[in-house]
Amino acid sequence: MAYRDSSWKLDVSAFQILLGESEELDLRLARRGLLDSLVAAPVGGLQSYLKTNDQLTERTGMTYISPSGQIKAPLRNMRLEQMIRKRRLLRNSLCSTYRVGPSLEPGGFDAWAFAWLLVSWIFFGSLVMGLCYSRSSWIGIVNCVLLVAVSTAMRLSDYLTFDVSCVKNTNPEAYKAAIILGPRNACFALEGSRRDVCRCTAFGLESKMGSYESVWYGMMRALAFSTLLFVLVTIPNGTLHDLIVLNCFGQLNTKVGQYLSASRCFQSLQEIDQSPPVPTRTHVYAHLLRRYGDGPWVDRTALLPASSGWVLWRSRVEGNNSDPKQLFEACCAEAPGPELKIGPIPEKRQIGGS
Length: 354
Hints:
Number of strands: 10
Strand order of the largest sheet: 7-8-5-10
Number of helices: 13
Structural class: alpha+beta
Helix content: 40-55%
Radius of gyration: 26 Å
Shape: elongated
């Protein structure tokens, strides 16, 4: 995956504490709801809206394995990836399986999002009234109102112009599973119909603007650039504490938005199985083979190493209830691989001397 920079940055030119662009981009990739878009807070990184929208439509994340499709593919639903990260579903020793279906789709009124919307407008109204009663500079008031207004326009633009891509599946009711392996001894599996699992894994964002896409997004980038330029130019003539307070609230709104998005995604899933703590990667492989069977998908996705010990272990583990690690050690003893011949170690060369 691409290198991710630090989450926090100090923008010396604006004297404001700003979240990195990656945090705001993550929230945009999760596709905010209408209530999230109307929050009275500046976006976490307005400078991220100056870039093209290819970063939204072409972004991919973790790699998942499909036993039924016998493929390994990148995850395109960033909301699912962020939910996995926020909920720490790939932490060590955890192998969990969830089911997704049309009856589990999140919908209706989101009370938590509405409550946060009210809190944001109360905070913003109190801030503006405080600036007015404190006889603050008109430039400070304009900057605060402008930042919130433009940020709301940017969020509404994303909500209205981007949607989850929709592709018709062949045999949509067929069973399908998607497996995501953790960095060590962990895995996350998603099961359901082909239509529902593909919706959660293979469908990313796409633009709904059609031929007007370049014109509309050009206008949005011009608006973001003009706002940033105006704020940076007028800061020396206005007050600084109001912008710092407002931007800190914008950082908090970004984190709250990520949490609400992860919670909505998690509520759309139903846990159907969680294995006991798995101490090694071998136990993870055994869990997958015993649940989804040994088939061509193991070879085509390169799930297991190709050594003779693993080949023998693979042929025995599916119907064997013994400890996978002990079984693997026994298989290695029966079918040892080729011996490694280690050549002589070259002498160290001295630099600058004989």
